[in-house]
Amino acid sequence: MSTAPSPATIRDVARLAGVSPATVSNVLRDHPRVSDATRARVRAAADELGYEPNALARSLRSGRSGTIALVVPDLRNAYFAELASEVIGAASRYGLRVAVEVLAGDRAHEVSVLTGSMTAFVDGLVYVPQKLLGTEIDDVLETRRAHRVPVVLLGERGADSHCPQVGYRNVEASRAVTELLLAGGARRIAAIGPHERAGSATPRLEGYLAALDAAGIPRDDALIRPTTAWHRTSGAQAVAELLADGVEVDAVFGFNDMLALGALSTLVRAGLDVPGQVQVAGFDDLEESAFALPALSTVEPGKRHAAGLALEVLAHLLEHDDEDDPGAVDSRLADFTVIPRGTTRSAR
Amino acid sequence: MSTAPSPATIRDVARLAGVSPATVSNVLRDHPRVSDATRARVRAAADELGYEPNALARSLRSGRSGTIALVVPDLRNAYFAELASEVIGAASRYGLRVAVEVLAGDRAHEVSVLTGSMTAFVDGLVYVPQKLLGTEIDDVLETRRAHRVPVVLLGERGADSHCPQVGYRNVEASRAVTELLLAGGARRIAAIGPHERAGSATPRLEGYLAALDAAGIPRDDALIRPTTAWHRTSGAQAVAELLADGVEVDAVFGFNDMLALGALSTLVRAGLDVPGQVQVAGFDDLEESAFALPALSTVEPGKRHAAGLALEVLAHLLEHDDEDDPGAVDSRLADFTVIPRGTTRSAR
DNA sequence: CTGAAAGCGCTTACAG
DNA sequence: CTGAAAGCGCTTACAG
Question: What InterPro entries does the entry give (chains A, B) (predicted)?
Fold first, then answer.
């Protein structure tokens, strides 16, 4: 107690129980072919010594840790926090633990997280790329592939990658939520959030335009307000500029809930009636959105579904790590749900 | 390329470079006593084979992984998400990676996260307890201690534990924010969030009562509204009940920002003027709070400071793992800042 | 049912 | 400056 004791090893337990380390190992992993008497003796010895197997050694020898890593851009962003919770939930259904690693940095940091660190200790990876794009991802993940660690991509940035991917029906969901606005009588819908970079912005713009097109409404570039940062402040500012420019507008579609929430706050502060004068809709269905005033209409893209699909694919790869054709891409899309709330007018 | 290649090992590199594995190891860890010629040959061989050291083996042998685990209750809760980001930032300043593990479950799950899983692969632990209390924590962490993995507790639940702890000045901060309400002219301040269970509720109630006492205002139990869940909905409901009960109130102190935000939304929906008729203040300074309408007055308890202190203590233990007296408790408290915003009236 | 041996892939003194 | 040897703590066939 006074001198720091070395942690007990399997050999200590074996010696105390009067058996071999192999037998201790068999008892501890519930191997059937061990006599009850031996089993009891080993258990007692292990208890007495407070023995806990060294997970590092076990993992090195067996090649399995029972844990996967989830690599996400940023937990301060509620979308990723909620998605992470879904991934953790889905993993537990497969008996897998999750270690979350956060990127929140530059490209070099993203590369170092993927090549080193925790990802080296895990059996598989669910990866939501931040700065890296399709083919770069494949290059960086070469290391993981060499070590037989399967990777599943979650989100839209991995387009050209050879990794299996799970994503959302961005075009369709975006179109559906735009149609909710149209059904409420909107004719001049601002789109907040498009940009040129890879990711969800392009398909969401496409869905928005498709809805307008189907309704016979021509595209008006004055209503399309680019923002690369999809934060609350960007949404607030984009709408403030829209109003300052004197652009006529009767609805706002934020490409994610944060943008929509920022837009909503600007509209309310400006004294406009939502949804009377201006309707608002977002994309993501964050928990917070239900509590906005008025409650934000949005589309739930299928976070839980996507997390479930990602784990289904990953669990499959974990089982059949050697047989698969490395070129085979297994891509799946989650189901979405439009959620009308207080910021939209109900259809007639 | 067609048959899955085994990952290259240090022996493969050694063979190709015509040296011993020990030399390869020395080159890769930038050991100085290696000739430039050998160094170049080893580097070339490693590149050619796409060699990446097996972190598991390295860690087993060297006893260091360069990663710590952060164990937190729930990432959906913005407070923990923001705290996690601060811990990650602080760790990077010590050259440490962070693997986040989420509890979000029952006691048994909390125990299993602490004893097994990723915590077995890391050099140290920053742990924000959820269900476990002081002495139980020590029992569960016996395993980590045996393996010489230092643990630092973050938060208020570990009171009786022998682990070093970092926390907030709950009483003082709570008193200071209550005094902000008093300075704005409040006399009937509701306290939302007290409960009997371990944690921050008790000291925050104490701070609230101390402020009232100093101002010569008697305690009124009708204004003290217990809630165990510190969510937005609980805050909204508590205030709704307060209003329904016809209790006279001119200010609300939510024991965290989520409660305050819920309270604020109920007040605004009820048509009350904030801060004209009722002032509101919270505790935590979540990013979201600055964007409420009106912006929420609150107290920043020192999340970044606490994260920095936790890492300072942990880094110290990592350096001096054997010399320390296991009974020594190193507790530190973070500095707080009162943040007046739109939900309080400025003092005269 | 149990044990001796080999080995997972590294790093660490220790010789030379 | 470089290499042979031992060993981190386990698990895994393989004998018996």
Answer: HTH_LacI (IPR000843), LacI/GalR-like_sensor (IPR046335), Lambda_DNA-bd_dom_sf (IPR010982), Peripla_BP_I (IPR028082)
SS3 B173: helix
Asked if residue A284 and residue A200 are part of one domain, the reply reads: yes
Tell whether A316 is covered by a domain. yes
A112: which residues sit within 8 A by CB, 6+ positions away?
none
In a domain, B2, yes or no: no
**Residue B348's CB: how many other CB atoms inside 10 A?**
6
CA-to-C1' distance for A27 and D12, Å? 14
Nucleotides on strand C lying under 7 Å from protein C-beta: 1-5, 7-13
Task: Provide the domain limits for residue B42.
Answer: 10-53
Q: Do residue A75 and residue B81 have CB atoms under 8 angstroms apart?
A: yes
User: Percent helix, strand, coil in chain A (nearest 5)?
Assistant: 45, 15, 40
Torsion of the alpha carbons at A269, A275, A276 and A278, rounded to the nearest 10: 70
- Residue A331 phi/psi, 5° resolution? -110, 140
Same domain for B98 and B35? no
Tens-place pLDDT, residues B90-110: 999 998 999 999 997 888 888
Q: Is the pLDDT of residue A324 over 70?
A: no
- Residue A184 pLDDT exceeds 70: yes
What is the per-residue DSSP string for B186-216?
A: -SSEEEE---SSSSSHHHHHHHHHHHHHHTT
Rounded CA-CA distance A122/B340 in Å is 46
B176 and B256 both lie in a single domain: yes
Q: How far is A328 from chain B (nearest CA, A)?
A: 13
The domain that holds A28 is classified in CATH as: 1.10.260.40
Give the amino acid at A303: K
Indicate whether B85 pLDDT > 90.
yes
Q: Give the pLDDT mean for A217-232.
A: 95
Nearest CB to A100; choose among B65, B99, B143: B99
Supply the CATH number for residue A230's domain: 3.40.50.2300
Q: Tell me the H-state helices in B102-153.
A: 107-115, 134-140, 142-146
Helix axes A303-319, A78-92, angle to 10 degrees: 40
